[in-house]
Design a protein that fits this description.
The protein is mostly helical and about 70 residues long.
Length: about 70
């Protein structure tokens, strides 16, 4: 759960930053987001998660009408 005081403190810190520091922080955050949430990474994560879930529940052809397929 998020602490309201922590959020307020963080917002105040950003508010008090100079323009150059805010710009640098924004650039770094954008670069991080592009890497962390790339299309390839998101698809790989979904693929791993769904493959694991199906394997754990012993999905068999005919039983649930689904089967594991490697693309």
């Amino acid at each position: 759960r998020v602490n309201n005081d922590d959020v307020a403190t963080a917002l105040e810190k950003v508010f008090r930053m100079g323009r150059v520091a805010r710009r640098r922080l924004g650039t770094e955050a954008r670069e991080w987001a592009l890497k962390a949430f790339s299309m390839e990474g998101m698809v790989d994560g979904w693929d791993r998660g769904l493959t694991t879930a199906m394997a754990q529940h012993e999905v068999r052809r005919g039983k649930m009408g689904a089967r594991l397929v490697n693309l």
